[in-house]
Amino acid sequence: MATAPGTLLRPAPEPGGTPVTRTRRLPWRTVLALAGGLAMCLAYPGAGLVPFAVLGPAALALAVHGRSARGGLWLGLVLGLGFFVPLLSWTGIYVGAFPWLALAVFEALHLALLGAATALTSRLRWWPLWAAALWVADEALRGRLVLGGFPWGRLGFSQTDGPLLSLAAYGGVPLVSFAVALIGTLLAAAVLALVRLGRSARPEPRRAATRALVGSLGALVAIPVIGAVAWLPLPGASLTDGGPTSTVAVIQGNVPRAGLDFNAQRRAVLDNHVQRTLELADAVRAGEQPQPDLVLWPENSSDIDPYLNDDARTQIDRAARAIDAPILVGAVVQGPGRFISNTAIVWDPDDGPGDTYVKRHPVPLGEYVPARSFFRLFSSDVDRVTDQHAGDEPGLLDIGGATVGNLICFEVVYDGLVSDVAGAGMLVVQTNNATFGRTAESEQQLAMSRLRAVEHGRSVAVAATSGISAIVAPDGTVVRSSELFTPDVFVEEIAQRDSRSVASRLGAGPEWVLTAAGLVALGAALRLRSKSRPPSGAR
Which of 15, 39, 91, 358 has minimal CB crowding within 10 Å? Predict the structure, then answer.
């Protein structure tokens, strides 16, 4: 009997098992896929069990190994639902189950495609490598297609601690995702080799299984070691190393209440941030705090348009003059036309409003509603959303002598938007998480800022309306952070760095290379499959 191409130093298993046997095994594979998705979710904040991230790729690889594309499609969907339903539960905290579950199912469909592709490539030699590359390809697809994509929950974003974090400096989030997936698929290969070793009595199959086991375990050890060694040449963790420093103040004013109506008292939100800034100015005059060069307010700190409302403008002017430093104000601005603009305004103590950045990637169904009449059939809450205008210029701003790369809220999850501003001396994320209550959303978003710090070798200042605000060092360490729904102010010296990491120079290159590798392997698997089919009419 002819032998199919091998998988990781061994021939592929011969076709075996009757349809009845395969049917009996399918529920166990389904349970394994579901458990893998749940375990993978535990790697992210709030559970924060970082090593559990590899169990998702491992479970999927084991579940679909040797299966058909149709079986892989189902098993990938099950894993995706087990992962995304709990991970994205914060999206339904105030708007109900339908939007949450709809988003979770849509995201899980991408992992269904991944399951089918992984099943097809599981008969190729070196299949763990191709399976890991397909994870990167799947995340690239999920982060781009359909209304700009939604790449929340990428494997790389789980690695806020441990030896794999350093790989972000060399290949960005895609390389970290690849490393996590590869460890998982190698773990699956080791399990399969152990099973074969236990079942085989003949010398040659046992030798092949032993070689596969040794190879898998050796690679499993090598990947974290490479990550640890990769950390050694990276720049130091200090906020003040790498360039001239600026004194940066972060203001978290808090909101009157959480939920969709957090901004029903818009003036109260603005007053909170003005008051915290006035208190900081008093502390500066008393010598208790250093004089800041720039002050960061969060997204939605002024939901009253200060260009149109004289009272709001007066209050912001008052705060800027008291602190004697420019303030980056997160404002909702009317226009153009029927739209509103989520805008960061550099507010000078002498000259008032100056340079601006308009959010480039408003959130579909949260900040604008495409096909509003269609989505109204499912929820009347869409009519509470006023469509936001998308900006078209990167958020590179000069504030108090510091060059700031500004991102607003969920923009931190998109590689391209971050890369566009990564040449600035530091990164700033203005965000408002009040609509997600006391869920893990704020921690998950902070984890992304930590990965971005390592990826681009930049300190990151996160200014949140209600938390979590933070200062993150270039090695991903959280130097300062606030609590949810608690006013806070902190002032730190932050270097304006000009060096570029390898990942920052390469941009999307590593992602495209890994994606291409996965797609080439998938093409080879499809070709092999077509060759193995008997000719039409053959018996």
Answer: 15
Please check whether residue 429 is in contact with residue 461, taking contact to mean a CB–CB distance below 8 angstroms: yes
Over range 420-436, report the average pLDDT: 95
Check if the beta carbon of residue 389 is closer than 8 Å to that of residue 358.
Answer: yes
**Based on the domain organization, do 334 and 412 belong to the same domain?**
yes
Q: Which residues in 74-101 are b (16+ Cβ under 10 Å) and which e?
A: bbbbbbbbbbbbbbbbbbbbbbeeebbb
Edge to edge, what strands does the sheet with 488-495 contain?
Answer: 352-358, 340-348, 327-334, 294-296, 245-252, 488-495
| pLDDT at residue 22, rounded to an integer | 45
Q: Positive or negative CA dihedral for 138, 141, 143, 145?
A: negative
Q: Residue 451 is part of a domain; what is its CATH number?
A: 3.60.110.10
Q: Are residues 134 and 30 in the same domain?
A: yes
Name residue, tokens 């209600």: 466
Q: Which burial class, exposed, middle or buried, applies to 360 when counting CB atoms under 10 A from its CB (0-12, 13-18, 19+)?
A: buried
Q: Could you tell me if 126 and 12 are in contact, meaning their C-beta atoms sit under 8 angstroms apart?
A: no
Positions marked catalytic: 299, 359, 409
pLDDT of 26 higher than 60 = no
- Residue 247 sits at φ, ψ, to 5 deg, of -90, 115
Q: CA–CA separation, 401 vs 30, rounded Å?
A: 57
524 and 487 co-located in one domain: no
Question: Among the listed ranges 21-30, 101-110, 495-504, which one has the minimum average pLDDT value?
Answer: 21-30
> What backbone torsions phi and psi does residue 398 show, to the nearest 5 degrees?
-100, 115
Please give the pLDDT value at position 209.
67
Which amino acid is it at 31? V
In sequence order, which residues have a C-beta less than 8 Å from that of residue 224 and are 6 or more positions away?
162, 163, 164, 183
Among the residue ranges 21-25, 65-69, 270-274, 452-456, the one predicted with the least confidence is 21-25
Q: Is the pLDDT of residue 523 over 90?
A: yes
The residue range of the domain holding 461 is 245-361+396-500
396, 403 contact by CB (below 8 A): yes
**What does the alpha-carbon distance between residue 107 and residue 110 come to, in Å, rounded to a whole number?**
6
Residues 451 and 327 in one domain: yes
If we measure between CA atoms, which residue out of 199, 207, 181 comes closest to residue 11? 207
The answer on pLDDT for 358 being more than 70 is yes
Mean pLDDT, the chain, integer: 89
pLDDT in tens, 380-394: 777 777 889 999 999
Q: Cα separation of 528 and 387, whole Å?
A: 49
Would residue 388 count as lying in a domain?
no
The string of pLDDT tens digits covering residues 258-310 is 555 545 578 899 999 999 999 999 999 999 999 999 999 999 999 999 999 99
Instruction: Give the number of domains in the chain.
Output: 2
